[in-house]
Amino acid sequence: MSDDFNESPLIEHLVELRARLVRGLLGLGVVLLALLPFARTLYNHLATPLISQLPAGQSMIATNPAGAFFAPLKLTFFSAVFIAVPWLLYQAWAFVAPGLYAREKRLAVPLLASAVALFYIGCAFAYFLVLPAVFHFLTTFRPEVIAITPDANAYLDFVLAIFFAFGASFELPVAMVILVLLGWVTPQQLREGRGYAIVGTAGNGCDAAAKYDVIESSLTVSSKNASAAGLPSFPTHQQERSLSCEYAAIQIATTYWGNPVSEWDVGATVARAANPHYG
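The structure corresponding to this sequence follows.
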């Protein structure tokens, strides 16, 4: 009798979970079916940031016979998931909510809503600001002898990766709030670590921007590994550029950490790091 009593709640939870999964998939299927007639239109809109930067009359290519067919379908599926996220999250919330306390419910609802809104904002930021700037840079500085003929599937994978990266990065405020609520960090620790975050972000960005060449990147990694092992190493030209950027970042962050920093101070620090003869 006791075993039957213990198994009954488990079976009820499994039945409820199955019902929520079915409802979520049905909602996703309805959105997908509604978007299928607009598959080509969706891809045309997605390709606008790149097509607008290409020479007149130039378009994308498909490197395999089915590429032109599956690329719009793949985009339509991800668009359906993108639109159905609130419905899918609601089904997950309806399954979990009965086991939460009132205080946890009050905290979870605004966090979920903020997470969804920030992810959408991050994707919009990538589409309207980041992608046009990136493609403008890539098409402007290419040699004249190189013609850009982007593949439809490769472009879709690239754009989806950009959307996911910026959408996830915009979730940082929600992640910080969750860490504080869990007691893993305190607001004071976050304030104290702000300078380290600035230095780390700027330094890693400069270091990544410097790695434009495979050979120099390999030399840079080998030199860093030799230094870590205690062996003598010599800085490459790439390392000098990266270190100068990191030094500028440290100076900017140190100034920001201790005293107010003006735009002139920031500009002068960066110019001094880029040109040793400056000032």
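Residues 11 and 17 are 10 Å apart (CA to CA).
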